[in-house]
Amino acid sequence: MATVSMSWSLPTINDSFPSHLRRPNRLHSVMTSASLKKEISGVGVRVTEGQGNLPKVVLSSPHGRCAYSLTPIALNCATATQDHACLVVFHGIANTRANRNNWQCEAELYLFGGCVTSWKVANKDLLFVRPDAVFNGQKPISGGAPHCFPQFGPGPIQQHGFARNMNWSVVDSDDMEGNPVVTLELKDGPYSRSMWDFSFQAIYKVILDGKSLSTELVITNTDKIPFSFSTALHTYFRAAVTGASVRGLRGCKTLNKDPDPKNPLVGKEERDVVTFPGFVDCVYLEAPDELLLDNGLGDKISIKNSNWTDAVLWNPYLQMEACYKDFVCVENAKIEKVQLDPEQSWTATQLLSLV
User: Fold this and answer.
1) Which helix (H) or strand (E) holds 207?
2) Is the link from the previous residue into 156 a cis peptide, with omega within 30 of 0?
3) Are 57 and 182 within 8 A, CB to CB?
4) Span 45-63+101-354: which CATH code?
5) Hey, what's the torsion of the CAs at 271, 273, 277, 279, to 10 degrees?
6) d(Cα 123, Cα 199) in Å, to the nearest integer?
7) Catalytic pick from 106, 185, 216, 331?
8) What are phi and psi of 164, to 5 degrees?
9) Can you give the C-alpha Rg of the chain in angstroms?
10) What start-end ranges are recorded for coiled-coil regions in this protein (predicted)?
């Protein structure tokens, strides 16, 4: 197996990031290898093999705070397709020691699709991955928080776009006041250009902080011509569907896709508490920046956002008879297309918190 030394330069995070999320540009020496041989452990962030031998990043923190720093020391790139996975191996330098067995909060993030598949608080997973999910690097991962980009739903290109079908790469890691942070990047390639012929950069930052999980998505037009897109985080929450409910949507304009997804019914949400009595597929335009999900399992989750503007509730009911009782989707979305000129960026954040 050949290994090749190479230089790896982290991109400069643009000014659209809040000041507390910016960090200086750095240059690291890295190595490439044909495959991931074993689990690599560090304090707070580790990269390991997930299901289907797909690489995943695991963020872990104890109850309270654990201060440490992380330095990327190697880059492993698998061969095969032009979009195959690249991942970073981290070396943790602990300022305070923590026993991983005592860690109470954890998140898992697959590089394929840039998909958060697990968010645990007190060892209880609040997200849901469908039992029919495939981890083969070919089909999107059905569950967690998949990306819909550059298209939400059906349209000129494939359903929900291509970002959930491509391998993202790790470009940075850090700790923010003791909380593990990882940043992923996705750029255009032959696969994306075969259906959407534009140059772009997507930066996705994930922060695990006690009882919360925050994400920031930045889309930048790196092309020489304008483009437009729609997007969403298609988040699956573990739930007892008969007891699940969402507050905060009263007064929103609705596009109800039941019974005809191609001709949604325009309406207005009149309920203070929205439930899931059967098949649900409804878009809420100009939704508030915070919703409250009661998952019917004894947990209440605050779903805050900036700049997503819209929300989507979905449960497939009998279309997925094997698992529909075990989850609901509450999705932050940008339904109206965003127009970006060359070098312009669009930023949206999501904060999930157990309350």
Assistant:
1) strand 200-209
2) no
3) yes
4) 2.70.98.10
5) 70
6) 40
7) 331
8) -80, -5
9) 20
10) none
**Strands, E assignment, 144-199:** 147-148, 169-176, 179-187
pLDDT per position as a tens digit, 150-159: 999 999 999 9
- Strand residues in 249-326 grouped as ranges (E): 253-256, 265-268, 273-275, 280-285, 290-294, 300-306, 310-315
Q: Decide if 331 is catalytic.
A: yes
Tens of pLDDT, residue by residue over 293-327, are: 999 999 999 999 999 999 999 999 999 999 999 99
Output the pTM of the full model: 0.80
User: Which burial class, exposed, middle or buried, applies to 318 when counting CB atoms under 10 A from its CB (0-12, 13-18, 19+)?
Assistant: exposed
The phi, psi pair for 109, rounded to 5°, reads -140, 115
Comparing C-alpha atoms, which of 52, 133, 110 is closest to residue 320? 133
Q: Active-site residue among 160, 185, 234, 269? A: 234
